[in-house]
Design goal:
Layout: H1 3-29, H2 35-61, E1 66-67, H3 69-80, H4 87-99, H5 117-129, H6 142-145, H7 147-151, H8 153-160, H9 162-181, H10 184-211, H11 243-248, H12 264-274, E2 278-279, H13 286-299, H14 318-321
Antiparallel strand pairs: 1-2
The structure holds zinc ion (ZN) (2 copies).
One zinc ion (ZN) is lined by residues 57, 61-62, 94, 98, 246, 250.
GO molecular function, one term: oxidoreductase activity, acting on paired donors, with oxidation of a pair of donors resulting in the reduction of molecular oxygen to two molecules of water
Membrane topology: Multi-pass membrane protein
GO cellular component, one term: membrane
């Protein structure tokens, strides 16, 4: 898949789900949506969401754990079904994002446009959310950013045949719809809800981690970027929205770093580990979090971090910060 095909795909992947949602709203209005459609939507949402969060992001981009070859293929194929791009390209952009987060060269920083005022803020948020996908000039060289993924023949196969996996992400819920209802109309609404409508919601949640997750929310760690923890996005992003924690410790298998920071991907990885299907799971203990928090605080944190009311971890009372008493 070259850049040009990719661009056409991006346009389609932005527009088709939008039409799908419009069609679904009309059907909803006419009460032509059955419980089967919602079940199919949920099943596909979980498969694709975990594919992106556990597979593309934690397994491939950050190597937060290791797993068996069949599971690596399963998670990557599930991630491809989300329609956010081939694994090779997704991982390259993402690793580049971490390398220069919120600095020149970041593919999707909301601070890319420095125009002052509300207009600049909205332009930046749009760029981080979706606008960056339409930048024809943007490319993150996989040879430079993810040679490990390129060397893996399974990853190359899924990347090369990526469009087939996306298509499967529409056909599969259609088949489920037929299986549940026994009608062609059921197959159609299944494909609509489990395919197009699901693309729309799941992808906007991912995009929101990039836009909102670098703009609004709390900062526990004074990382050199603007990443934020966004609690209300955590459940539906499978834990991805603990984005400040993630930028502080990119390799950690768990992005939620307190018991109350719900992180479904981390639960899945922990479950796989118990079953002996995940090994080398990277965990960051509280002491290491604390040490790094103090070190970053000395460096000064992100450019806009000072304006937020929330205090980074290193500013809090020492007893709380080292975990003797948790005041949060
Ligand atoms: Zn980020
Ligand atoms: Zn990451």
């Amino acid at each position: 898949m070259d850049g040009r095909e990719h661009y056409t795909f991006i346009l389609l992947s932005a527009l088709l789900p939008l039409f799908g949602v419009a069609a679904a709203v009309v059907l909803l209005w006419n009460q032509l949506v059955g419980p089967a459609d919602l079940v199919i939507f949920a099943i596909m949402y979980v498969i694709a969401g975990l594919g992106v969060s556990t597979g593309y992001h934690r397994l491939l981009a950050h190597r937060s754990f290791r797993t068996t070859r069949p599971l690596r293929i399963f998670f990557t194929a599930a991630g491809a079904m989300a329609g956010q791009g081939p694994p090779v390209i997704w991982v390259a952009h993402h690793r580049r994002h971490h390398r220069v987060a919120d600095k020149p060269g970041d593919p999707h920083s909301p601070y890319h446009d420095e125009e002052p005022g509300l207009k600049g803020a909205l332009k930046g948020l749009w760029h981080a959310h979706m606008g960056w996908l339409f930048d024809r000039g943007l490319s993150s060289d996989p040879m430079r950013y993810c040679p490990d993924i390129l060397r893996d023949k399974d990853m190359r196969f899924i990347s090369k045949h990526f469009v087939w996996f996306v298509t499967a992400g529409v056909v599969l819920p259609g088949v489920l719809g037929f299986a549940f209802t026994g009608t062609l109309f059921g197959a159609f609404t299944g494909a609509l809800w489990g395919g197009l409508v699901r693309f729309f919601f799941a992808n906007h949640i991912t995009y929101a981690v990039n836009s909102i997750g670098h703009y609004f929310g709390r900062r526990r760690f004074a990382t050199p970027d603007e990443s934020r923890n966004v609690g209300w996005l955590a459940l539906f992003s499978f834990g991805e929205a603990w984005h400040n924690n993630h930028h502080a410790f990119p390799r950690s298998a768990s992005h939620g770093m307190r018991w109350y920071e719900i992180d479904i991907s981390a639960m899945v990885i922990g479950g796989l580990e118990k079953l002996g299907l995940a090994t080398n799971v990277i965990r960051i203990d509280r002491e290491r979090q604390e040490q790094k928090a103090v070190a970053w605080e000395k460096l000064g944190g992100g450019r806009h971090a000072r304006a937020t009311p929330d205090k980074p971890l290193a500013h809090r009372p020492r007893a709380a910060a080292v975990g003797i008493v948790d005041v949060e």
